[in-house]
Give the backbone structure.
Amino acid sequence: MKINFEEIEEKSLPNFKGGEKSMEARMYVDEKHKIMRGTLQKGATIGLHTHDTSSEIIYILSGKGTMIYDDTEETLLPGECHYCPKGHSHSLQNHQNEPLVFFAVVPEFGA
Amino acid sequence: MKINFEEIEEKSLPNFKGGEKSMEARMYVDEKHKIMRGTLQKGATIGLHTHDTSSEIIYILSGKGTMIYDDTEETLLPGECHYCPKGHSHSLQNHQNEPLVFFAVVPEFGA
């Protein structure tokens, strides 16, 4: 099935996972997945959170991201990918002027 | 953790899933996921296959794809996404002159 993000309403999610400012996202959700295209404007962050029952895979479309992954920091550029396996923690942050746009998949594996 | 596809060797996979020509892919694999950036040149296809224990989420980066999904056909453009839930079948095909480049995640859920 096709997911056309342009046909999904964009929602602004303030303080997502306890982060700063808002994440804007067009999101498809079923019982096994969240599939989204998200944007973090300058200064916006997704707060640090642990994937206890799911993983997350993020592909950077534009902008430059800073990822806190467990106790490390990663810089993410367009075409690069971040993988947070089940049991790990991360926080995506945009410290640049340019919006950070990304595609993300969150598969749900259960406990 | 960061996955930088440029640092992963590109492999040419002929007749992938019984398809035509080859898929070129840079792929990260662990027990729960396949995460890849793939290319289909003109005339290349991924053969029709069923996701019995996994799903697949494909995000189109460039080019134009034709997707056979169960008994329907979808056209996929850059920025669009295809989702094949567990239990469904699909075949990605490139009938255009331009290469079809995509990002894909295959989460493994088990039987």
Summary: The interface with chain B takes residues 1-6, 28, 30, 32-33, 35, 37, 55, 57, 59, 67, 69, 74, 76, 79-86, 103, 105, 107, 109 of chain A (CB under 8 Å). The mean pLDDT of chain A is 97. The CA atoms of residues 53 and 111 of chain A lie 5 Å apart. The first strand of chain A starts at residue 2 and ends at 3.
